[in-house]
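note to self — DONT lose this again. spent like an hour looking for the file last time. sequence + predicted structure for the chain T wanted, 199 res
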Amino acid sequence: MDRHEWDERYRTRELVWTAEPNRLLAAEVAGLGPGRALDLAAGEGRNAVWLAGRGWRVTAVDYSEIGMAKARELADARGVEVETVVADATRPLPGAPQFDLVVVAYLQLPEPDRGAALRNAAAAVAPGGTLLVIAHDESNLEDGYGGPRDPLVLTSAAAVAAALDGFEVQKAERVERVVETADGPRVALDHVVRARRPA
């Protein structure tokens, strides 16, 4: 979907997703001390706002103006500060500072855009900082619930980890995520890659 389609999707509902953070993200950053964080392709800002509530200085970036407006509203409602930037994750952020934590959650793009976004995310990580990538896994198409139906926007933890030159990969694995549905719980297959840039 392009930015205009995302704007329309965000405009038609109060929140497309919950206001609560992604559970996988919350678990992965629980042991990190707060610093400066970048939420790349932040959507409506739920993860950025959660991080800000835990003491992180957060910049949320998304190419949807409506998404970023909703992120500001959510931050105001929670009493936290989040800097919002309307920009495309596949293009370098000019003059972007380096961050102690860079999050890319469920940015499902085909190549070469996926690679460009990952390079931009990696370039934003400060020495000693952490890059966290969470996405629907390619195996979810056949074996899991929900997620994109286009195989071109899906990849694996191993492929993401292999693209991270100069990083220490701490975790690269497929994970199961239980989704509550009207028909009962279903299992979605995601992957989590957590990597550290050496200090």
